[in-house]
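$ ./design --mode recover --in tokens.txt
reading tokens...
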């Protein structure tokens, strides 16, 4: 056992609109699988390092495990963002004058254009995720397609709204060709309070660096410190 072990989080989401409890239960199990696999890989790495180095004969196995870290870690973390931005009391859109809506409008020409872009990302063919992320350096929002769990994440960007569009997210409730219906259901359950909390830097170091700006939502003034 190493210090790099993670515990699966619990999410109380039964009774969502258009995403069944059966889907959620299956999805929680998948998420727990990513947590377990992340822990297992961390343990393997620790085993390799037990003698203080990676021996040459260990390099192929070590490399394979290390490459898989991106998949398993992002599989764990993205599911936490995803479940975390859902709620039984969700709504398809935030209030128009809310920090998120204003931030989206500041980075796109309007909130509606931001949403059209996000929906289009979500409908892209393939296995992956639609993610609206904050660039904490510039305070701008952008929407991204992430293949699998790890291809397309931008280093340092902070996910605000995360939508799983792997088929397992909706296949018990909708046909494979009905992803649009699932996306509509997803949006009806979005917890915009959570999304907006993610707009604020969680790490206090983020607001003490003089060159950094707060997200657009808070205005364009320099962070005070
Ligand atoms: Fe998933």
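writing sequence...
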């Amino acid at each position: 056992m190493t210090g790099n072990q993670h515990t699966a989080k619990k999410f109380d989401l039964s009774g969502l609109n258009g995403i069944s409890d059966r889907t959620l239960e299956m999805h929680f199990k998948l998420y727990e699988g990513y947590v377990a696999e992340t822990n297992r890989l961390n343990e393997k790495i620790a085993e390799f390092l037990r003698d203080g180095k990676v021996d040459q004969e260990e390099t192929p196995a070590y490399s394979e495990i290390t490459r898989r870290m991106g998949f398993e870690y992002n599989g764990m973390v993205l599911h936490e963002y995803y479940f975390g931005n859902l709620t039984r009391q969700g709504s398809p859109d935030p209030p128009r004058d809310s920090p998120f809506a204003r931030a989206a409008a500041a980075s796109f020409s309007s909130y509606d254009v931001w949403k059209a872009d996000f929906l289009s990302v979500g409908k892209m063919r393939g296995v992956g995720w639609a993610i609206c992320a904050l660039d904490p350096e510039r305070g701008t929002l952008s929407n991204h397609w992430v293949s699998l769990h790890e291809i397309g994440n931008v280093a340092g960007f902070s996910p605000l709204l995360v939508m799983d569009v792997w088929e397992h997210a909706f296949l018990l409730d909708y046909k494979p060709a009905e992803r649009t219906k699932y996306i509509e259901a997803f949006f009806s359950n979005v917890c915009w309070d959570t999304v907006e909390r993610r707009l604020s830097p969680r790490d206090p170091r983020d607001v003490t660096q003089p060159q950094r700006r707060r997200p657009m939502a808070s205005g364009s003034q320099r962070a005070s410190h």
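exit 0
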